[in-house]
Structures are given as structure tokens and as C-alpha cells.
Protein: EGF-like repeat and discoidin I-like domain-containing protein 3
Organism: Magallana gigas
Amino acid sequence: MQYFVLFFSFLPGIVYGSFFQIDYPNVNVSAEPGGDLTFEAGIGGDVILKPGAGGTVIIAGTDLRKFIEKVKSLPPIWTKQSVHGSLGAFTSGTKIAVSVEAMDPDGGKIQYKVISGHLPPGTSLNSTTGVVGGTAPDIDASYTFGIRATDQHGKYADGTFSIDIREKDQCISNPCQNGGTCSDDFGRYKCTCSSDYGGERCELRCDSNPFGVDNAKKTIPDAQMSAHYTFSNHFASNGRLHSRDGWIGESTSSWLQVDLGEVRSVYSVATQGYRSSTYYTLSYKLQYSTDGNSFHDVIGSNGSPKDFFGSSSYDSVIKHYLPSIISARFIRFVPLTWHTGGKPGLRVEVYGC
Ligand SMILES: *[C@@H]1O[C@H](CO)[C@@H](O)[C@H](O)[C@H]1NC(C)=O
Ligand SMILES: *[C@@H]1O[C@H](CO)[C@@H](O)[C@H](O)[C@H]1NC(C)=O
């Protein structure tokens, strides 16, 4: 081995007792290409490299101080929750704001990231605060997910956490009225009503809930009113309770029909005569159908088609409960008798749920 030995005699070196000291603005010590540079202390002596305040030691581009810091740094430690932690159970629709927390033993900042699984839909993780926030989804489920806490040196610790979502009991507010029974469903409730009631919350008394043939409501549109053997231009669409005039038929072959739009439970009907002193129906029968093709008579207690009393004046409203509740989409009013010298006029309403 060849060694080049520095010859310091041309430097302003000073020898203090056992020290050889160089004081110079900058000092370069370099070997020639292929040459080695050796600092060698005596037995029991140290080699000391001591950068100035704010300075560092660089070895082939690597900052030795940062490198040592990194080597010595410790990974984060989960603090608030254990590594396998439940962050709680939440009811659908409520606000979620829970946090995970890890600390860096070296005192640095932590970044959080979901690395596996899924947070509940509608929630997110704040990467700087570790807060999982949002609104609990409308579903009954448990969500398990992994979160990685990473410190500024890239050291990390992983934790597995879970959040349980409990679907809200939709029946808790007792939404069903009038003795209806509530059943819980996802995102909604379902009421099973006692026989006289209907509507979403059994709030309707079916025998007095009009489907809306009445001229003041017109929930049933003109297109769902039809008739057979109509007199002159007194069309079916006029045959609405409380309308200005009414529908007028010709004979016992005439009928006025209401299409309810879908099969409903029909409880009662009401009629008036045509708005003129002679055109009112004294009696009628009712027919009903689910498909508009095959019609059945409403049967009375004597086993034959029930004869409903119409009215004894053109304007009075006469309401009848059906002998039993029927399921029907189409209801036909078929005049049987009418005021002498007149024609069978009708204005009608149908009630049910
Ligand atoms: C040595 O010093 C000179 C001038 O001061 C400088 O240009 C050069 O880069 C230095 N060499 C090393 C290896 O630092
Ligand atoms: C995370 O939380 C901090 C502090 O509350 C907030 O300033 C920041 O906007 C949040 N970040 C996101 C992405 O919401």
C-alpha cells in the first residue's frame, strides 16, 4: 500500500504541547485519485467530527445527522384506542365524529390514512386530525377498516378499527294510528291497519275517505269517468258530487263508471241527482270490477243485487255503506228507477282506502 502523508510544514499550523491545530477559513484535505484518506487515533483515542452550530456532517451526499435521527426514531404508537378498537355504534342518520390517535415518540406530526377495508358510506377520515366524521348511513352493518399512522420519518403503525351502524327502528315514534301495527323496514316503516282504517299511517277512516270524484277535489281525472247510454251532452265527467250539473243516462241500460286507477278497498258511495228538479235517480245498483271486463253486482243481504236508495230530491247527498268491503278498480252506478217524467241523473263519490 502506498500512502500519501500530508506534509503540514507549509500550513500555518501551530503545535500546542500535545496538539497540532489548524485554524483556517476553510480546510480541505484530499487525496489524489485512488488514494485513501485515513484518520487514525491512537490506542484509546477518539476520532471526533464536530460540525458547528446548525452545521452537519455529510458523507457522500447523506446528511449524517438526519440519517442518525431517522435510525434512532421510533414508530408511532396508537394511544387513544387499542390497535383493535371499536369506535362505537351509531344509529342511522346520526352524526359520527370519533377519532383515532397515535403519537410519535419523537414528538413529530402524524398522518392518518385508511389502508384496508371501508369506512361507513358517508363518512371520511381527516388525515391530519384522525377524526372519522360524517352521517351514519341507513343500513344495519359493521365496518372494519385499517388505518396507518405515519410519522414524518416514514415510520408507521397500523391499527384495525370498527364502527357499527344500527339501523333506526322506524317504529320508535309509533307512526301507525288507530290501532295499526307497525313493522320496521330499512329506511321506512309499514303499518298494517285494522279493517276500518287505511293510508300510510292508518290515519284515514276508509268509509269517509273520498277517492276524489267530488268536483271540489277531482283527484279522479275526467279520463277515468266514463258512461254508457248518456243523454245528450251530459257527459260522465260531469257526474261528480257537487258539480254544477251532472251526468244523465237514458235507461236502465245506462251506467256511470268511475275508474279508481288501481284496485282499492271500497267502503261506501254517495250520490246526488242532476242539478234540476226532475233528473234524479230514485234507486240504483252497483257493479264492480278489478279489470274493467268482468263485472259483479254488489249483493244485498237477500242474496240478490242490492238496491241502493238514490234520493228524493235532486240536490241531497245520500251516502251508503256497502254490505261488505269490496276490492275493485272500476265502480259502476246503474240506475234502476228515477223521478217520473225525468231521466236518471247522477253526481257521485266513492269512499275507501
Ligand atoms: C477545496 O477547496 C477549494 C477552494 O477552497 C474548492 O474549490 C474545492 O471544491 C474544495 N474541494 C473539496 C473536495 O471540498
Ligand atoms: C381536518 O381537520 C382540520 C382541523 O379541524 C381542518 O382544518 C381540515 O380542513 C380538515 N381536513 C379535511 C380534509 O377535512
Confidence is low (pLDDT under 50) at residues 1-10.
